[in-house]
Amino acid sequence: MIVNFTHPTFSSHELLADKLGRGFAVRVGQKMIIEDYGVLGLSWRTCSRLCEIFERSERYFKLLSNTFLWQIQKVGNVSHIILNREAHRRGMELSTEASLSATVVVLQAMSEKEISPIQVSFKHKKPKDLTSHKKAFNCSILFEQSQYSISYKTEDLRLRTAKADASIHSYLLQQVDEKTKGIKIPGNKFVHDIETLIKDALPTGIPSIHYISDLTAMSNRTLTRRLSETGVSYRDLVKKTQEKIAKEMLHKNTESIGEIAFLTGFSEQSAFNRAFKKWTELTPSEFRKKI
To answer: What's the farthest any 2 CA atoms get from each other in the chain?
Structure first.
């Protein structure tokens, strides 16, 4: 991945590689942890499936830096995750090696499974020593290719994340209790659970009711009815959740307004600003100044 690893200058990468060997960047990527990626890393923790990590990364960079870095191309049963960067100097090559190496670590941490890529491609020339590359990627490694990419079986990227597995399992157990023991989930708890699922999904964009009903193993109609019984619609609950998250984050004052727009599912900061003013009659900046 990209965020935070690129704080050192490309010159620093080059100097360190000269001292520590060409595999240095790959080894650094293997040491990265999710906490190193700031707000983007925070958003990864609530992904339902591994592929959402790249979808959120794409949204993050397009919203906050107007760049298009990550792209997924599916060919048959293989997904190629393409990193759109130019190899204009050795420091960039090293940074990219670290980014793709870190991707392997992030996916394994999120899935808690030893999944490995099936191929990694680099634009630059093959280094003399591939020891670190082979250990990190454990797959076919190609050089002097047309693009930087890392490829996985699509079924691996469709795996649920470890967090999603745990929370969904807990929720489904409640549903089993409802059906077999007649222990109905209280309305306020049901709404809270759905609100949590919406909150977790927002960094990928505003979730459809189909997406949430799929997570809860309900039909759209059943989910709509259960919410209606508590006096709330799905659409209103999404807006309420967005507003609640935005206000909490503006109070904390640790994330930028652009980052809050990303975490609340908006594709543009201007759209977030307009929505927030409808909710509070204040812009996010004005609201923050009043705190």
So the answer is: 67
